[in-house]
Amino acid sequence: MSKEMAKEMARLAYKALDDKKGEDISVIDIGGVSVLADYFIIAAGSNINQVQAMADNVDQELGRAGFPCKAMEGYQSGQWILLDFGDIVVHVFSRDDRRFYNLERIWRDGKFLSREDLD
Q: What's the pTM value of the predicted model, to 2 decimals?
């Protein structure tokens, strides 16, 4: 898939998280430092129901756009839900787990994008 298509997926995921009041949404371009994906999108929610609603909205919005989720992990616990779309990976955390795992620190060699960078 092209880098532009992956960027469009990241934009849609960001919007889907934002629509459900996702907190502290980060988009990291990891294409230059990893073969796992082109983008990691990370967000937090205030409770399990919000975390699950955020994950559901990402899955629905990207699915509607023709990008089906390849794998989802952690949905039942609602503490850390990982959605793998191939070229992008979305991490939706509870606030505490977000702070604990601090994925931004692990992927600090990636390029952090603003919402404006996605438009």
A: 0.94
